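Collaborator request log, item 7. Partner lab (contact: R.S.) asked for a structural prediction of Stage V sporulation protein AE to inform their binding assays.
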Amino acid sequence: MVFLWSFLVGGLICVIGQLLLDVFKLNPGQTLSILVVSGAILNSFGLYERLIDFAGAGATVPITSFGNSLVQGAMHEAEKHGLIGVVTGMFEVTSSGISAAIIFGMIGAIFFKPKG
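Returned to partner:
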């Protein structure tokens, strides 16, 4: 049953993103920003953790989880270091994902030629 809920919740998040692109004619940057901010807002109300408990990877894999991670890192470090912890906490929690995106993007650029 966990797999079904994971599939449905992850699929619903993707459907929302696709609707933002197709129906509201937003560009990909706007759509990603809305989804990241949505994850952050859900976290601030304590709802995203419940969604993760319910749907597992269906909630942790989509881009909304990035917003969730940003808020969690910022809040955790803010408790320890105050205002400066807000900034450092966001970078500490998300640095591995951002680093991987940069590295894999560079590898892709080395091995593939863009069409144009």
